[in-house]
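User: Some background: our group keeps a shared notebook of sequences we're curious about, and every so often someone picks one and asks for a predicted structure to add to the entry. Today it's my turn. The entry only has the sequence so far, pasted here. Could you supply the structure so I can complete it?
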Amino acid sequence: MMLKFALVAGALMVVSTGLSAQEASLRCPAPGSKVERTNLPTIAYRGADPASPLVCLDQARQPRFLGYWSTQSAFFNAGGKQLLSTFAEWKGGPSRVVNIDYFGSDRYGNSTTANEKWQILGQERVDVHAGSFDAVKVRRIFSIVGTNYVFTETLWIDRASGTPVRSVVDHMNATMSPDVTSWQATEVITRPSGS
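Assistant: Of course. Here's the predicted structure to add to the notebook entry:
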């Protein structure tokens, strides 16, 4: 009887290891899922872009990288292919850093060079108003080259549903970008895949 239990326990361990490796991959929330956020509009999802499982379409058919960042943004135009290939290969721990440089304009119309560093930091449990989630932690560091303008943006993505559940922005100087703000999920409504 003891040997039978050991074999069953061993089989369960193999199965659960396989499942956790499979669950480690990033994906879009299922169609009909949504996240209500503090002080920001709700994001409702239509599913993944057929061309990329890491680009999610929202209810307005706007594509969002990892279900959050607009793929119409300058960073994605400059480094989207790098981000997609690096993050698609993610295995559960820290990923390599993706470094992106691109040109833009400041609020006065002056030409600037932006630098962004992106990395998956690993997995972490995060507690928000909507509950407790086993999440993937992604960090973005944005800076304007030649200035002291820097902010970091950290996003937690629920592993079970693919839904972003928290964003924390740390501005490293007095100037703050009004469109990059911290928030947390107040409610997460998920739909099973294929429903």
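Suggested note for the entry: The CA atoms of residues 8 and 14 lie 10 Å apart. The chain has one domain: 27-189.
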